[in-house]
Amino acid sequence: MKTVPERIAALRAAMKSAGVDGYLIPSSDPHMSEYLPDCYGARSWFSGFTGSVGTLAVTAEKAALWVDGRYFIQAEHQLAGSGIELMRVAVKGTPEIPDWLAENLPQGGVMGLDGMITAISTVEKLEKEFAEKKITIKDIDFVSPLWEGRPPVPATTAWLLGTEYAGKTAHEKLEQLRDALAEQGADATLLSRLESVAWTLNLRADDIAYNPFPLSYCLVLPESATLFINKKRVPAEVEATLNAEGVQVAPYEDAASAIASVRTPVTALYEPEGTSYTLYHAMKANASIKLQAGEEPVQPLKGVKNEVEIQNIKNAHVKDGVAMVRFQMALEAKMASGETVTECDVADMLTGLRKAQPLNLGDSFDTIAAYGANAAMMHYHALPETCAKLEPHGFLLVDSGAQFRDGTTDITRTYTMGELTDEEKTFYTLVLKSHIDLARVVFLEGCTGGNLDIMARSAVWRHGIDYRCGTGHGVGFVGGVHEGPQNLRITNNVAFMPGMTVTDEPGIYEEGKVGIRIENELLCKEWGVTEYGRFLCFEPITYCPIDVKPVKVDLLDNDELDWLNEYHALVYKTLESSLTPEEQDWLKTACAPLSR
User: In 3D, which of 41, 35, 21, 24 has the Cα closest to residue 104?
Assistant: First the structure.
């Protein structure tokens, strides 16, 4: 089965044999992860769409793939000729997945899905929509028998993040977690999300590209905690340390049976979006477990960084800034000498420069190096056989980041490669205004990501322009580059608190023409207290010059211009001692004040 139509045909044959009328393949694993181990990339294998997020639905006669605005262009290209219809999420006229399935499944039909990789919240939405037609759900795995050459389940060596980086021990974090559970009227939970297990136990591994997590669960009860993981990959000293912190270690596949064996009555908090359909039913079947739906309690705990984490994150960004300076200097030298440079070369250069920094663990995501019109695809991925050659005109957008033992970074810069059009300069300056407007905002405590997202969009909205994604996202600590619960998106209702970090990355993306993005990571901190309440603000903790060559200074107001110059002064002061004299001279020029 080498082609997508052949794979879809094989899936339909298996469905027919099992009496199943429809099948759902989400971008998911048993932990509802954003980034997946290769062995859980079934949606890509069956559809041919390689973006990180999307949902494939297949019936006897139709197939459709839902993707968000980041992937409209990419999905349109990759689905061509597959027989799979592209569904553009949040675009008027696009049906929701449950609605589409209910319309295309027969009365009394059967909908199949793999319950281990499907969240209970997803199933509940399907069941609600299916009620009128009496369509039932069947937990069945068609992927395993059909996926030829499926990669093995990863089992990299687990290791512990010391308190000199994490700030708190696993025992202290478990106590925090139990207190948070008590606030919600619960005393137990099954941690399914990989980033939550990793943060709570200070446990890391290399199971997923760019994400330092081990495939694992953690069952937290009033008097005990059990880590479920492939025990062969846990060194004896790691297990001994976990035991001393009050954590027992059990085989990964024992999670369901351990849930079934709970005999002391407990109230278990579960997150519908983060708990699999299969494990939810294992908990529901145990009479000793009273289930209570709620927000996963680790997310807000790890969303607010402690003082040790904050200092480490800043240290990581200094190293990242050094790598970025050296990258830009090297790129400029190559272009000036007439050397051929491709988008793939750019990614390799950055990876190598970051690896040279102390405590580097690799990239935090697949570098996006996009030249010219390619940058209009927000999550464009350059391939060796098709990557573009950089030319002495237009823009190069570079979105990249690193994992260090002392922090996770994410940064985007858009570089001038040569001659620009007036429109390109205008677009760039509007993006810069959006970036600055958010970075310098002062806001009353209680404002949410949805409130603040509007601050960034205002500058582009005034010109009838928008970007089909959020303005920013939380970043984990030696964790996922996308971690919440805070983010900058119109729909986000999480209030910002001091200690939260978030990216500031507005952009303009004009299909077939240009893509521009400027991204820093910001730290939320207290601005001051007045008779009107407590006010908060942001501190930039990304240290790298912003290209000012395309800036139309007349479009910046005085406050925006002051912010830009102050930011560049901060960048130079922060990086100066880590650079050679030649690099200092280059950075001094790159950070020189901009005037009218």
Answer: 21
Report the 10 Å Cβ neighbour count for 165: 21
Grouping H, G, I as helix, E, B as strand and the rest as coil, residue 109 is coil
Q: Is the Cβ–Cβ distance between 169 and 202 less than 8 Å?
A: yes
Report, as an integer, the average pLDDT of 205-214. 95
Distance CA 462, CA 452 (A): 17
* Residue-level pLDDT at 189: 98
Q: What percent of the chain has pLDDT over 90?
A: 96
CA gyration radius for the chain? Answer: 25
Residue whose tokens read 């200074």: 553
What is the rounded distance in angstroms from the CA atom of residue 114 to the CA atom of residue 14?
14
Residue 1 pLDDT greater than 80, yes or no = no
CA 498, CA 524: separation in Å to the nearest integer?
Answer: 5
Mean pLDDT computed over 538-546: 98
Q: Is the pLDDT of residue 69 over 90?
A: no
Q: What is the mean pLDDT of residues 89-104?
A: 96
CB hemisphere CA count around 553 (13 angstroms): 11
Neighbours of 464 (CB within 10 A): 6
Distance between CA atoms of 389 and 392, rounded to whole angstroms? 10
Label residue 35 by pLDDT band (50, 70, 90).
Answer: confident
Which residues are CB-contacts of 405 (< 8 A; sequence separation ≥ 6)?
161, 165, 359, 361, 478
Predicted confidence (pLDDT) at residue 462 exceeds the cutoff of 90: yes
SS3 18: helix
How far is residue 135's CA from residue 122's CA, in Å, rounded to a whole number? 15
Pairing of strands 188-191, 217-221: antiparallel
How many whole angstroms separate alpha carbon 427 and alpha carbon 212? 36
**312: its two tokens:** 């480490």
DSSP H stretches of helix in 380-448: 422-439
Q: Residue 377 — very low, low, confident or very high, per pLDDT cuts 50/70/90?
A: confident
In terms of C-beta distances under 8 Å and separation of at least 24 residues, what long-range contacts does 124-130 make, across chains too? 124/272, 125/98, 126/24, 126/98, 126/101, 128/98, 129/98, 129/99, 129/101, 129/102, 130/98, 130/101, 130/102, 130/105
Name the 3-class secondary structure at 395.
strand
- Per DSSP, helices labelled H in 214-342 are 236-244, 255-260, 277-284, 298-303, 307-336
Q: Is the pTM higher than 0.85?
A: yes
Integer CA distances (angstroms), 293 to 41, 118, 496, in order? 28, 16, 23
Alpha helices, DSSP H, located in 19-149: 42-47, 72-79, 97-104, 120-130, 143-146
- Using 50, 70 and 90 to split pLDDT, how confident is the model at 596? confident
Backbone angles phi, psi at 113, to 5 degrees: -165, 155
Query: What average pLDDT does the chain have?
Result: 97
Other Cβ atoms closer than 10 A to 530 = 9
